[in-house]
Amino acid sequence: MRHLLRPRRRDERGDVPGWVLITVMTAGLVAGLWAIAGSQLGAMLREALSSVSG
């Protein structure tokens, strides 16, 4: 019964931190969007830069 009342130690080996998962998912999202709409995004960027520069 005593072992049930003792707080359990948490073993963190093998756990992936949340910031790693967020970073990997963000990179995947950017890569996916770039693959789908890369040419349109490039055209939009060129147009925006040309309108700013004159």
Essential attributes:
mainly alpha, 74% helix, single chain
Quick synopsis:
The chain is an all-alpha fold. The protein is built from 2 helices and no strands.
Q: Would you give an account of this structure?
A:
The model has no long low-confidence stretch (mean pLDDT 84). The protein is mainly α and 54 residues long. 74% of the residues lie in helices and 0% in strands.
The computed structural class is mainly alpha
Oligomer: single chain
Overall form: rod-shaped
Helix content: over 70%
- Count the E strands: 0
Mean pLDDT: 84
As residue ranges, the low-confidence spans are: none
Q: Radius of gyration in whole Å, from Cα?
A: 24 Å
Layout of helices and strands:
Elements: H1 2-5, H2 18-53
